[in-house]
Amino acid sequence: MAVAEKVAKTGGGASPAGGGASKQPDKQPESLYEDYKKVQPKKISGFFRTLKNWSAIILLGVYFIGPWLRWDRGPGAPDQAILLDMSGRRGYILGVEFWPQEIYYLTGLLILGAVGLFFVTALLGRVWCGFTCIQTVFTDVFVMVERVFEGDRNQRIKRDRGPWTADKLSRKTATNLVWLVISFAVGWTWVIYFNDAPSTTLALLQGDYTWGVLGFALLVGGFTYVLAGFAREQVCIYMCPWPRFQAAMFDEDSLVVTYEKWRGEPRGYAKKAESFETRGHCVDCQLCVQVCPTGIDIRNGSQLACIGCGLCIDACNTVMDRFGLPRELITYDSNNNQVARSKGEPTGYRLVRGRTIAYAAIMLLVAAVMAFGLVTRARVDVSVLHERSPLFVTLSDGAIRNGYTFKILNMLPQEQTYRVDVEGVEGATMTVVGYQDEPVTQTDLIVKADSVGTFRVYVTAPRVAIDDPAMDLEFKIENLTTGETAQRDTLFAGPAPR
Ligand code: SF4
Ligand code: SF4
Hints:
Elements: H1 3-9, H2 47-65, E1 82-85, E2 90-93, E3 96-98, H3 104-124, H4 127-132, H5 134-150, H6 153-161, H7 166-192, H8 197-205, H9 211-231, H10 233-239, H11 242-246, E4 255-259, H12 261-264, H13 287-291, H14 311-322, E5 330-334, H15 335-342, H16 354-376, E6 380-386, E7 393-394, E8 400-410, E9 416-423, E10 429-432, E11 436-440, E12 442-447, E13 451-461, E14 470-479, E15 485-493
Antiparallel strand pairs: 1-2, 2-3, 4-5, 6-8, 7-8, 8-13, 9-12, 9-14, 10-11, 10-13, 14-15
Helix pairs in contact: 3-16, 5-7, 5-9, 7-9
The structure holds iron/sulfur cluster (2 copies).
The site of one iron/sulfur cluster has 14 residues, from helix 14.
């Protein structure tokens, strides 16, 4: 009920004390907020329902099977195809391994995902909301479970309004138990993307789980249960920010679900053999409203609550078929086409538009940068830190010594040997604490598989070679197995020349 209606019902806020003559009994003021009415979508079959089913099967299949796929990375490395190993600080997707310092790939993926969403929305409208969003998919699954135990829309509404009986209790219990099992499976699957799937699941079955792992599964599962079981369309209408700014991606050529008012009105009840010559094609059967998962009436125009699932189209098409009328009174089409159709003009679809070109260009650019980065990504990651305190030391023979901390990141699953050369200062030699005691200009450093080797390197140069308090010094590093090289420029500090 609208607020104004409620105000009118409650007397428009007039005070009974005003005239002093009111004898009305004291009443609790009625709330100005409408009570929540549970949306009970009716089952419908058709093209969009089939599309939604296949989309859900594929997405759920990928989600649930994903962590169980294996990928041989050699001895000592995890064999899970998709694994985000938080304790090992590594991410694995098939043959590609990501380190924390490569988080920019994740940024690239997020940009790609966001622009991809803009692109698809500009082309096809709210397909993300209607067919692929996890909220939509799990709500669909939960409604199907509800339908199995509690019947279709009318039976569910009737049962919900009726008293609590043993039958109602048992059906509700069965529905909720299955919801809980699905929710836990969702939560557990989420957790095993971060842990080895077989051993973590076996540990759970043997009761040998950690509370951190179980707690996280219960948290994700709990959200699934509440959001898909109870909040449902309210997530789309009130919680999700996406519907609020997706309108900015639409133009006159974007596909949207719309009721063709010019053809449907004036609406009204109709018998089967009735002529539709002097009236609209909408028979006001309400089927489009009954199947809608967000409970809206698309005949009132485009609405934020419409997730673009197309089920109202399936519903209306069955009605049109029954009356021998043309299908698509509710259409999934562009605004331009609808206007053209209403004028009897030819229709067409423009894929190539300014905004679709712009989104596609951004996606291609980001994908190309990421692909280039992946192909050319350095396997030798070295940082050289010049020690600041002290900047240099004058040895007893007058030579000048500088200290450096080397960090060499070995991203490979085998131990690697790195050859280091020092250049740039005449007569400079180096020693490495715990590795190389004799002064040399070239030394080999060994770094274990999948780890960071830290080395303390001292470079010593004769006093006569120092002609500047900050001379350029160069370290050249070569991986002796892969042949990859890196160069780090730093400075060699010394006293001011005499
Ligand atoms: S109005 Fe139609 S397309 Fe929009 S959410 Fe409802 S059933 Fe889906
Ligand atoms: S299903 Fe079609 S005919 Fe029935 S009320 Fe909706 S728009 Fe009208």
